[in-house]
Q: What sequence folds into this?
């Protein structure tokens, strides 16, 4: 379970908070979409949840443990072990083949090479790219690269998957497929999924849609006008 309780963020001590009162509980296997106007602080909120920005009030708990007070080293470890990230610009390393790109999080956790290779292959199979393990990334389409990024984000079985506009670079058909894959895989590994998106279509595929406003998160009907 990931719990946000009354999170608040301000970039200057004398300024109005960008947001405050952000509370949310997400259970394992659940994928939540966060929408909201441009500049309202969606990416900043993801950064707070990942410990890349400090929050200025409230608390964050992961599996019953408070994590918002951790120091930089402890946060880095939590990110490496417990978090997976998917971004709009896939961030696949061009000089590594697909298998090595996917195995990267496991290497960073000192998991032995044979186990890492086997798990990377399994994840590539799961995203439909099992036969392409030795290909270089420049042979892949945008949709395929994003599937590699999903495999990499989930290969170490993270507790939390954070996705910031993960399908923003894809055409609508591809975007739908890739998102369905992301949500299914999050469910399968029992992670908590948080998807930031401007796309109602994308948001509608998740379990719950929330709108970020200055005063917190509000439930949001994406099928409405
Ligand atoms: N390090 C920073 N210092 C000061 N202001 C910042 C910093 N990072 C972001 N901001 C400001 O905080 C606000 C929220 O930015 P953020 O990127 O989180 O919004 P967003 O809702 O994700 O926007 P978009 O939908 O356009 O991506 C913006 O006004 C931005 O300029």
A:
């Amino acid at each position: 379970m990931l719990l946000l309780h009354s999170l608040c963020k301000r970039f200057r001590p004398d300024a109005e908070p960008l947001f405050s009162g952000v509370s949310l509980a997400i259970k394992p296997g659940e994928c939540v979409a966060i929408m909201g106007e441009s500049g309202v602080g969606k990416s900043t909120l993801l950064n707070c949840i990942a410990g890349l920005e400090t929050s200025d009030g409230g608390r964050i708990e992961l599996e019953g443990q408070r994590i918002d007070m951790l120091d930089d080293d402890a946060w880095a470890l939590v990110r490496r072990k417990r978090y997976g990230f998917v971004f709009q610009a896939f961030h696949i390393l061009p000089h590594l083949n697909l298998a090595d790109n996917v195995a990267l999080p496991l290497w960073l956790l000192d998991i032995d090479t044979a186990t890492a290779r086997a798990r990377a292959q399994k994840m590539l199979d799961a995203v439909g790219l099992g036969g392409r393990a030795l290909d270089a990334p420049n042979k892949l389409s945008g949709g395929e690269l994003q599937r590699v990024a999903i495999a990499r984000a989930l290969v170490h079985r993270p507790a939390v998957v954070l996705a910031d506009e993960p399908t923003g670079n894809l055409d609508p058909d591809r975007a739908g497929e890739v998102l369905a894959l992301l949500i299914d895989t999050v469910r399968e590994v029992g992670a908590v999924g948080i998807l930031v998106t401007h796309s109602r279509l994308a948001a509608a595929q998740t379990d719950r849609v929330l709108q970020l406003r200055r005063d917190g998160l509000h439930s949001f009907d994406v099928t409405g006008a």
